[in-house]
Write a structure and sequence with these properties.
Strand order of the largest sheet: 2-1-10-9-8-7
Helix content: 25-40%
Number of strands: 10
Radius of gyration: 20 Å
Strand content: 5-15%
Largest sheet: 6 strands, antiparallel
Low-confidence stretches: 1-34
Structural class: alpha+beta
């Protein structure tokens, strides 16, 4: 249910624009620019998502002079309460960006180095996974460890509900991934694996002597002002939550309950788009980690567009890259983008149209990837329309 390797899926998108009006709720004014509405294209694209069956979409854009927020659709299909810009959603692998910040703080505090091996530091790392070589902190952060993905070791039953009713612990995830092969040929190549961040969560707990949820709260959420972000189990009956759905043998299933992901440093966060923009602003304005760690975070290995916990994307106003946190579950797709200098942010989550899981229909996996790519394209186009080069 988490984001997979999208490197080979991110070709240029031919985005279809639907010239119709859209229904939304708003609590922010439009920006004052030379264009009557610089976000008209974004609104049309989001309306297309809704016309394709999305349950909801929430977006926020931030720039030096202000911000713009919109919500479309409904919080849930039972009450059909209109979605609001302040609503929260499960943001999946955007959590990895938060975890990466907590790891880089370990480096800043001289508790470990980016190129230090973790084999003998992370509890049960060698016994659970049997790594074929020394594995470094950097390799875990940028997905070049080559370790197998725990998702590939989960049961493949079409009825996924028994699996989601149990919490996947970090230790349990490493043990599951250890049932899959990990060869020396895999080490050093980019291979997106959620297991990397389960291992990093255990590293953080070990070196901080605190639960991962507490460390993320103290080192990331608190300092960056993410007041509407949580890492624990949510109450699906809570107001202000966007509900997610899939179908199972043609029947609609509400999958909002996040029991499976509680405390998971690869994908447990529930957040608002405003908080995701605060996260990205805090990181790229240099308020989250040291300048040297931020440089490392923004640097990819050169053969894939991924640094340490963030993706790279071209910036229409700068020679520097933009950077992104991307997340996807069966029921939600989320992207958060920031300019390299932290002056511009854009974040959007879309509650995916209810579809079978890939366990029942393998074709739906690509549909979800494609939706995530379109969200990314839409946000970057919007930033290209309003951004100005830094002085």
């Amino acid at each position: 249910m988490s984001t997979k390797n999208r490197v080979w899926r991110r070709a240029a998108l031919a985005v279809v624009i639907l010239l119709t009006g859209c229904t939304y709720s708003s609590d922010e004014p439009a920006p004052v620019t030379s264009s009557p509405n610089p976000f008209a294209s974004l609104e049309k694209q989001v309306q297309l998502f809704m016309d394709e069956g999305a349950v909801a979409a929430v977006v926020q854009i931030r720039w030096p002079e202000g911000e713009w927020s919109r919500a479309y659709g409904v919080r849930d299909l039972k009450t059909k309460t209109p979605a609001q810009p302040t609503d929260r959603a499960q943001v999946a692998s955007v959590t990895k960006t938060m975890t990466a910040v907590a790891v880089l703080k370990l480096v800043d505090d001289n508790l470990i180095g980016l190129d230090d091996p973790v084999n003998d530091v992370i509890p049960r790392f060698t016994s659970s996974l049997t790594p074929p070589a020394p594995i470094t902190v950097r390799q875990l952060l940028n997905h070049t460890s080559g370790m197998p993905d725990v998702n590939d070791a989960l049961p493949k039953d079409v009825d996924f509900r028994p699996v989601l009713a149990q919490t996947l612990t970090m230790e349990g995830g490493l043990q599951l991934a250890g049932t899959l092969p990990w060869t020396s040929d895999d080490v050093g190549s980019f291979k997106y694996s959620n297991t990397n961040y389960l291992a990093l969560g255990l590293l953080i707990q070990t070196l901080r002597s605190k639960p991962i949820v507490d460390v993320l709260q103290e080192d990331v959420l608190g300092p960056l002002g993410l007041k509407n972000t949580s890492l624990d189990r949510i109450d699906p009956h809570e107001t202000g939550i966007l509900h997610g759905y899939v179908t199972l043998r043609g029947e609609l299933v509400d999958t909002t309950d996040n029991t499976f992901m509680v405390g998971n440093p690869a994908g447990c966060a529930i957040s608002t788009m405003a908080d995701l923009n605060l996260l990205m602003a805090g990181i790229f304005q240099g308020r989250a980690v040291s300048a040297s760690s931020l440089r490392e975070m923004k640097t990819s290995a050169g053969f894939h567009p991924y640094g340490l916990g963030v993706w790279e994307h071209a910036d229409g106003c700068s020679k520097d890259s933009r950077h992104e946190a991307r997340g996807g579950f069966w029921d939600y797709q989320t992207v958060a983008v920031s300019s390299g200098d932290g002056r511009y942010q854009a974040a959007m989550t879309v509650t995916t149209p209810p579809m079978p899981t890939e366990l029942e229909d393998p074709s739906t996996e690509d549909k979800r990837y494609y939706l995530n790519d379109r969200i990314e394209s839409t946000l970057n186009e919007a930033l290209d329309r309003i951004c100005r080069p830094a002085n």
